[in-house]
Design brief:
Number of strands: 6
Number of helices: 3
Strand content: over 45%
Largest sheet: 6 strands, mixed
CATH class: Alpha Beta
Order of helices and strands: HHEEHEEEE
Oligomer: single chain
CATH topology: Nuclear Transport Factor 2, Chain: A
Structural class: alpha+beta
Strand order of the largest sheet: 2-1-6-5-4-3
Shape: globular
Radius of gyration: 15 Å
Distance between the termini: 44 Å
CATH architecture: Roll
Length: about 130
């Protein structure tokens, strides 16, 4: 068996786990599940929001905790991904409706998320969000 054939099951498992983590993230956002978000976001997270602002994990969790961020609807149109070693990237495009910073918003958005696979699970290390 060639090395690439031997590595394929491990790569397939990483890919399946990455896609499951992305879906778990979307569910946590829709339900405002702070505990699930805490588990999915790396402590070092840096996210660039659609307003160009720089946000940390704590900023994101606080926004969900206080009700400043409430996702009412999150509809995925497309999801692409790639994996290189223990780094994964997801490219989500979809429509998001809710309240953000106290203002109602409905927008078609693109999310680029960089995930690190450590400790047997995927966690988001960096994200960039922009209107689509």
């Amino acid at each position: 068996m060639r090395d690439s054939e031997a590595e394929r099951p491990a790569t397939d498992r990483l890919e399946a786990d990455l896609l499951a983590a992305e879906q778990a993230l979307q569910a946590a956002q829709r339900h405002g599940d702070v505990a699930a978000l805490d588990a999915l976001l790396d402590d070092r997270l840096i996210a660039i929001g659609p307003d160009g602002g720089r946000y940390t994990k704590q900023d994101d969790l606080d926004a969900y905790r206080t009700g400043s961020s409430v996702v009412e609807s999150l509809v995925q149109e497309s999801l692409e991904h790639l994996i290189a070693g223990h780094t994964g990237v997801t490219f989500f495009t979809g429509t998001v409706s809710g309240t953000f910073g106290g203002a109602p918003v409905t927008a078609r958005m693109r999310y680029t998320r960089t995930w690190a696979h450590t400790g047997g699970r995927w966690r988001i290390l960096a994200a960039h969000i922009t209107p689509a």
